[in-house]
Amino acid sequence: MAFEHPQTVEKVEIRTDGAPAPAWMFSQGVRKGPILQVSGQGPQDPATGEYPSTTAT
Fold this sequence. Notes:
The protein is mainly beta. 0% of the residues lie in helices and 21% in strands.
């Protein structure tokens, strides 16, 4: 496997309609070379944008 200098590897934003929209101006994920970073947030109903008022037990 050839090594690429980190500054020459393209950074690609990852987005999907199958997950809640990210908060503020964050991406849902970013891929840079072989590394994938994903963001997460609390439970949100994608249909309504509401956060459930119950907690897991």
